[in-house]
Design goal:
Structural class: alpha/beta
Radius of gyration: 22 Å
Shape: elongated
Helix content: 25-40%
Length: 433
């Protein structure tokens, strides 16, 4: 049986150049490279985009204004999202001090922190000696991590607290050596005590100290709670009773250039194109925030601003890693490549698989679409759970996914343009069918 959770998927995915588009494609409707690039750079320019924060809010305002300019009526939906602004977040042991990333929903330690001996816990929850009163240093397996709901993350942390640990510091071992922020339940804290994340590049000295149960102190101090964040939908309601819905999330832990930028740019392109190109359908373009809290915003959108299930002909969701740059993994000197990161998936209702194979031929990852009955992930799961069918969605985990260094260097403009053209052809074909 195939595991349908996005928390366990693995990946495959190449670059379709502009020259490889079908010769029958009308050049007038092709996405313009300079427009896509400008939208990508505008998105990146908003900086960190945690739900309800300044970057997320400004980005949402921009996207809503773009849809209004294209002729859509915009409706906003406000909800409460968690937040935490750290004033101090670090692990200290002897002469060692390293920054840590507080794991949401954050359980602060207060200014004095939590002290205890360091004890290493392996990736399946095993440890030597006693964890009673200790700070557990959870040495996660190597992966492109994304969510703390993944059993590979949740189980060893829960095991450490069950064995008496005062706090947990998890080493997010991944391809960049940087700390990987992890999505979390947005309704309540997931763990019984303070949890922080540490980059592998900062962890070796603490791992050495854990062999001798060296004393350490974890400090997670700051201000937090809940704050207003907003989703929105842009609608063109022509009274046709046949909605086409396209959605994308805009929020995330850091700048999210390649994680979110490609989806946002393609979503904007489709919205501008569809306003005049699809006159026989009602249109709903949904933009969610709160993605990093396990689709908190998407769940809210489904309840209030999504089009009626029975009147929706097709839903397309543009999720993570639409078209990120790939890299050579040279130790200490990762080198950018012109190709696209292959860790991206196109999941689509079974009846539309032949169409998707044709439309995305030559686009690595997308050229081998998967049936949504076998594999769905990200907010596509919310769409399917709500009853929308047929539906399609993209998702993936590129090399700098959930890492602060997911910035403009991770963008792949030609691949984003190619993906946007593929989504247009898919949407157009379904609309005509």
């Amino acid at each position: 049986m195939i595991d349908t959770s996005r928390r366990t998927f693995l990946g495959a995915g190449a670059l379709l150049t502009i020259g490889s588009f079908s010769s029958s494609t009308d050049a007038a409707v092709l996405p313009r490279t300079e427009t896509i690039e400008a939208d990508l750079n505008r998105y990146v320019g908003f900086g960190e985009k945690r739900a309800g924060g300044p970057g997320d809010t400004a980005c949402g305002d921009w996207l809503a204004s773009e849809l209004q300019a294209a002729g859509y009526a915009v409706e906003r939906q406000t909800f409460a999202a968690p937040y935490f602004e750290a004033s101090r977040a670090e692990l200290v042991s002897g002469d060692l001090t390293a920054p840590v990333y507080p794991q949401p929903i954050v359980r602060p330690t207060g200014a004095e922190g939590v002290a205890g001996p360091l004890v290493r816990v392996d990736s399946v929850g095993r440890f030597m000696g006693s964890l009673e009163g200790a700070i557990a240093l959870v040495d996660l397996a190597f992966s492109r991590w994304s969510s703390s709901l993944s059993p590979g993350i949740r189980r060893p942390i829960e095991a450490a607290f069950a064995a008496g640990a005062k706090a947990v510091v998890a080493i997010t071992n991944g391809p960049t050596g940087k700390v990987i922020a992890l999505n979390a339940d947005g309704r309540e804290p997931m763990f019984s005590g303070p949890v922080a994340l540490i980059a592998p590049e900062h962890a070796s000295g603490f791992l050495a100290g854990a062999f001798t149960r060296q004393e350490a102190r974890l400090v997670i101090d700051g201000a937090g709670g809940r704050r207003d964040a907003f989703n929105f939908v842009g609608r063109i309601d022509r009274g046709k009773g046949q909605w086409l819905a396209v959605s994308t999330p805009r929020s995330g832990w850091f700048t999210c250039a390649a994680e979110r930028g490609g989806g946002v740019a393609a979503w904007l392109y489709l919205a501008r194109w569809a306003a005049t190109a699809l006159p026989n359908h009602d249109l709903a373009f949904v933009c969610n925030t709160g993605h990093e809290y396990e689709y908190l915003g998407a769940a809210e959108a489904m309840r209030e601003i999504a089009p009626p299930v029975a009147e929706t002909k097709f839903w397309l969701h543009l999720g993570a890693n639409v078209a990120a740059r790939d890299w050579h993994e040279i130790p200490g000197a990762p080198t950018a490549l012109p190709s696209v990161d292959s860790q991206r998936f196109l999941s689509i209702s079974p009846d539309l698989l032949p169409l998707a194979r044709t439309v995305f031929a030559g686009q690595i990852g997308y050229e081998q679409p998967v049936s949504s009955a076998a594999l769905a992930a990200g907010e596509l799961e919310e769409v399917i759970r709500a009853g929308y069918s047929p539906a399609a969605g993209v998702f993936g985990i590129h090399r700098y996914h959930h890492v602060a260094e997911d910035d403009a260097r991770c963008l792949n403009v030609p691949a984003t343009v190619a993906a946007a053209e593929g989504f247009r052809r898919l949407l157009e074909s379904v609309a005509r069918g």
